[in-house]
Amino acid sequence: MTSEWPQRRPRHAVRLTAQIMRDDESCLEADVTNLSLEGCGIAGWYVIGERLTLDIPRIGKLRGQVRWAMLGRAGVRFCPDEAA
Predict the structure, then answer these.
(1) What is the pTM of this model?
(2) Which of 8-17, 28-37, 38-47 has the lowest mean pLDDT?
(3) pLDDT digits over 1-32, tens only?
(4) Chain mean position to CA 38
(5) Are 66 and 74 in contact (CB under 8 A)?
(6) How many CA atoms lie within 13 A of 11 on its CB side?
(7) Is the pLDDT confidence value at 80 over 90?
């Protein structure tokens, strides 16, 4: 059986604190728990579809969209075509 979902790149476990800016311009800190070229996992309460700007130490500012959120954790997919 072939999956129709694209294969996800490996994520690397990390422990970083990022600055998060929501589109309503509110800011908060969040722990980044894993990281790949396509996205990351973050701690906190977010809404699926919400767009964020993440300022991750040693990486810089990236735009992303919350793809899933559950029990105080969320997955963010980076949007490389959007300016941070």
Answers:
(1) 0.85
(2) 8-17
(3) 456 666 667 788 999 999 999 999 999 999 99
(4) 9
(5) yes
(6) 17
(7) no
Percent of all residues in the chain with a pLDDT value above 90, rounded to a whole number: 79
Helix/strand/coil percent split, the chain, to 5: 0, 55, 45
Nearest-5° Cα angle at 70, 66 to 73: 70
Query: Cα–Cα distances in Å, from 75 out to 1, 2?
Result: 26, 24
- Residue indicated by tokens 């790149």: 9
Q: Which of these, 53, 47, 41, 46, lies nearest to 16 by C-alpha position?
A: 41
16 Cβ contact partners less than 8 Å away, ≥ 6 residues apart: 31, 32, 35, 56, 57, 58
Q: How many CB atoms lie within 10 A of CB 16?
A: 16
* Nearest in space to 73 (alpha carbons), one of 36, 37, 34: 34
